[in-house]
Amino acid sequence: MKIEWFGHSCFRINDSLIIDPFKAGSVPGYNPLKIVGDKVVCTHEHADHSGRECVQLTDKQCMLEIREYACWHDEQQGALRGPNTVFVISDGEEKLVHLGDLGHFPNNELLAAISGADYLLIPVGGHYTIDATMAAKICEAAQPKRIIPMHYRWGEYGYPEISTLEPFLDAIKTTTLADCVAIQELIRNN
Ligand SMILES: [Zn+2]
Fold first, then answer.
1. 102 and 141 in contact (C-beta within 8 Å)?
2. Residue ranges per structural domain of the chain
3. Ligand 1 centroid to 60 CA: how many Å?
């Protein structure tokens, strides 16, 4: 699978599917997005995930298989921040999971759906989403082959109230650190 990171929680998969483009000006530091793709999906309707207008759609069909799982943006069944959708994406060979702004430990059905992914895209910045400790717990439970952290602050990029990547890297030190860092560098250099 080809995975490109555009910052915050926005990725393009196999040059085709765009997940969670942020609206212009919604996330500090990032320039407005301008991405070409065949399809765009959003995990929820907050401005930092629902910038569909930033995507220039082709007339090609997206060939990826996309499954959706309903969950919540907080630990109170959406009472604080509303619903969230988890996307499980397959290209026939590899499985990628994008957790959006997940706000709680997954229930059994969701945990089964996201388990054993080749790539787990997981929010780690806390405040609006699960924090580093909970993210590490979910990684241990879901056993992905590679972890791609997202929705955190780095340099001048991202919300000041969310955490940097380091607490998450500390929290998963005993399990999947190597893979995590390798992928992170790969994406940043893209
Ligand atoms: Zn968000």
1. no
2. 3-188
3. 29
The pTM of this model reads 0.93
pLDDT of residue 190: 45
Q: Are 2 and 152 in contact (CB under 8 A)?
A: no
Q: What is the mean pLDDT of the chain?
A: 91
Q: Are 68 and 89 in contact (CB under 8 A)?
A: no
CATH of domain 3-188: 3.60.15.10
Give residue 7 CA to ligand 1 midpoint distance, Å: 12
The neighbourhood of ligand 1, an ion, using CB within 5 A, equals 48, 101
Q: Ligand 1 center to residue 34 CA distance, Å?
A: 19
Q: How far is the CA of 152 from the centre of ligand 1 (A)?
A: 10
Residue 128 has pLDDT above 80, yes or no: yes
| Helix H or strand E encompassing 174 | none
Å from CA of 141 to ligand 1 middle: 23
Q: For position 100, what pLDDT does the model report?
A: 98
Q: Residue 43 C-alpha to ligand 1 middle, in angstroms?
A: 9
Helix, strand, coil % (nearest 5) of the chain? 20, 30, 50
Q: Containing H/E element for 75?
A: none
Q: How far is the CA of 180 from the centre of ligand 1 (A)?
A: 21
Each residue's pLDDT tens digit, 138-185: 998 999 988 899 999 998 999 999 999 999 988 886 555 545 555 555
